């Protein structure tokens, strides 16, 4: 595996903190933008412990989940064994070029590819999007959610880029906000909005709809300084 499986060491923490209750605004909007999936073949990249994969399967999709973390894939497979939904999980590095694309294409072309808050975990954005485009059928949908690249953070909440840094300073970093428990452990790749949009265009993934869902009202009420800014970004693209 060429990538770094940062989640292997925190698999228990992550699975406990992000349950199958799809009640956060970004995940709900992501599933809305994907649209009806009954009878469609869906690939989730950076699937983690399978939270979104299971939500898609419950909506009638034929789902394959792929992730670099062997520990998270093991958790996803354990849930599948206990409550079978027909989901297939694959331990793979989706940035590994033609080898990754070929391995996933052997499972058949996909109608939809989804990535929930995973692109900032992936160091090689172009590699991941190349695999996405290679596994999608023409006219297929790619939908993703990320922390908004323009979110500057606020008291106790880390933003998209390092404290004391600038929006235009791209690169991997580790958060220091007290409430940013996940990103303090695994870090994140900050990229500007233009970097994301231009990368999608390079890989023939054409922007079709954009959403900037507001955080949950209770979260916003506790952190009005953070909620004054865009927090989430959800994109729907169509493969040319």
UniProtKB/TrEMBL annotation:
Residue intervals of the Methyltransferase domain: 42-140
Keyword Transferase part of the UniProt annotation: yes
Coiled coil: none
Record InterPro entries: Methyltransf_25, SAM-dependent_MTases_sf
Source organism superkingdom: Bacteria
GO BP: methylation
Protein's UniProt keywords contain Transferase: yes
One MF annotation (Gene Ontology) recorded for this entry: methyltransferase activity
Keywords: Methyltransferase, S-adenosyl-L-methionine, Transferase
PANTHER family in alphabetical order: METHYLTRANSFERASE, UBIQUINONE BIOSYNTHESIS O-METHYLTRANSFERASE, MITOCHONDRIAL
Identification of the protein by name: Class I SAM-dependent methyltransferase
Annotated source species: Nonomuraea monospora
């Amino acid at each position: 595996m060429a990538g770094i499986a940062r989640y292997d060491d925190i698999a228990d923490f992550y699975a406990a903190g992000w349950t199958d209750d799809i009640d956060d605004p970004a995940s709900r909007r992501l599933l809305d933008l994907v649209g009806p999936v009954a009878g469609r073949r869906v690939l989730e990249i950076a699937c983690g412990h399978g939270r979104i994969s299971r939500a898609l399967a419950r909506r009638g999709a034929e789902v394959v989940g792929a992730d670099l973390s062997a520990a998270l894939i093991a958790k996803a497979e354990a849930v599948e064994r206990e409550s079978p939904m027909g989901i297939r999980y694959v331990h793979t590095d989706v940035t590994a070029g033609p080898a990754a694309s070929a391995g996933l294409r052997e499972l058949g072309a996909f109608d939809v590819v989804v990535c929930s808050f995973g692109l900032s975990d992936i160091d090689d954005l172009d590699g991941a999007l190349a695999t996405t485009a290679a596994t999608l059928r023409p006219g297929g949908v790619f939908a993703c959610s990320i922390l908004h690249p323009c979110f500057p953070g606020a008291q106790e909440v880390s933003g998209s880029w390092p404290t004391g840094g600038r929006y235009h300073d791209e690169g991997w970093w580790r958060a220091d906000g007290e409430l940013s428990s996940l990103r303090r452990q695994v870090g994140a790749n900050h990229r500007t909005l233009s970097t994301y949009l231009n990368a999608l265009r390079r890989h023939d993934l054409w922007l079709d709809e954009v959403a900037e869902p507001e955080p949950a009202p209770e979260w916003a009420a506790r952190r009005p300084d953070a909620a004054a800014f865009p927090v989430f970004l959800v994109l729907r693209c169509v493969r040319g």
